[in-house]
Amino acid sequence: MQVVTTPKEMQALALTWRRDGLKIGLVPTMGWFHAGHLALMRKARTVTDRVVVSLFVNPIQFGPTEDLDNYPHDLERDRRLAEAEGVAVLYAPDVALMYPEGCTTRIHVDGLTAGLCGASRPGHFDGVTTVVAKLFNLTLPHSAVFGEKDFQQLAVIRQMVRDLNFPIEIIGHPIVREQSGLAMSSRNTYLKEDEMDAAHSLSKAITHAKKMVKQAERPSPEQIKEAVSGLIVSHPQCIIDYVEIVDRTSLQPCERISSESMLVLAVNINQRIRLLDNSALL
Ligand code: PAF
Question: Cα dihedral angle (261, 252, 165, 145), rounded to 10 degrees?
């Protein structure tokens, strides 16, 4: 596996692969790999000939009070893990190379970015779409694989790809969970022992919501949201950012539960750790 650190070298390599008729797969990440990332790499390998994993903690998608400076990192550990998955290139550029002075273009997807995480993290999705578009241009992938834990992010990226005519297949990969049910996330590494019950309340609340919709008389979205919120806030360390039931494509609130309904959750644990989870309800 090669470690590539400059945009120029990355794009030149991707162009060579393209000329040789090879299919390229991209897995964009911010590093600190867990089993969820490794599953994305494996998926990319099954559909392409050369997998590029980008490892870049993208400063422009973090707000001023967020965890950019503390984001966990260990390049050598991630290098070993990616290599073991048969990744061809780990692309790990410096910030100054990705955003040289004078780089002022931002990509904004309207509509889908307004609510949920977009409401509590202003500018976050502009940072995500801008870096993902740059990564697409640098790695020239035929397919790119993203985790479904960041459900809104995936919807926003699909919209950008449609709107800007990127000739790239976007593949969503189901959430990978710990045995306990906790959705895997690099941010789980911040959780202390006495915060684990609070962290587990998200997946437990999802399991409860799924049981509720199986009842003879199907509950309304409001009833489910109330039950889910109640379970989560019974842990005083949890502060809910949102508990919503939205249509999986439009991300607009559902009036009744259908196969298109997604329960989406964002919860702050002790004001330090932002956890996301989601699930279809039927
Ligand atoms: O999901 C992430 O890790 C990031 O938002 C991404 C897609 C790598 C862009 O920085």
Answer: -40
Q: Residue 174: is its pLDDT beyond 90?
A: yes
Instruction: Please state the pTM of the whole predicted model.
Output: 0.97
DSSP state for residue 67 in the 8-state scheme = S
Ligand 1 midpoint to CA 132 (Å):
8
Identify whether residues 152 and 27 lie together within a single domain: yes
Report which ligand 1 atom has the smallest distance to the Cα of 56.
10
- In contact, 116 and 247? CB cutoff 8 Å: no
Out of 37, 124, 142, 235, the active site residue is 37
Domain termination residue (choose one: 141, 173, 205): 173
Task: Report the domain count for the chain.
Answer: 2
Cβ contacts of residue 8 below 8 Å, gap of 6+? none
pLDDT at 216 > cutoff 90: no
Q: Which atom of ligand 1 is nearest to the CA of 58?
A: 10
Buried b (16+ CB within 10 A) or exposed e, 231-269: bbeebebbbebbbbbbebeebeebeebeeebbbbbbbeb
- In which domain, by residue range, is 219 found? 186-280
Query: Residue whose CA is closest, atom 9 of ligand 1?
Result: 128
* 5 Cα: distance to centroid of ligand 1 (angstroms): 18
Q: What is the per-residue pLDDT for 114?
A: 98
List C-alpha distances in Å: 56 to 78, 98, 175. Answer: 12, 9, 21
| Residue 37 annotated among the catalytic residues of the structure | yes
Mean pLDDT of 235-246: 98
Report the candidate in 41, 57, 58, 56 with the shortest Cα–Cα distance to residue 143: 41
Tell me, yes or no, whether 254 lies in a domain.
yes
SS3 201: helix
Give the model's confidence band at 23: pLDDT under 50 very low, under 70 low, under 90 confident, else very high: very high
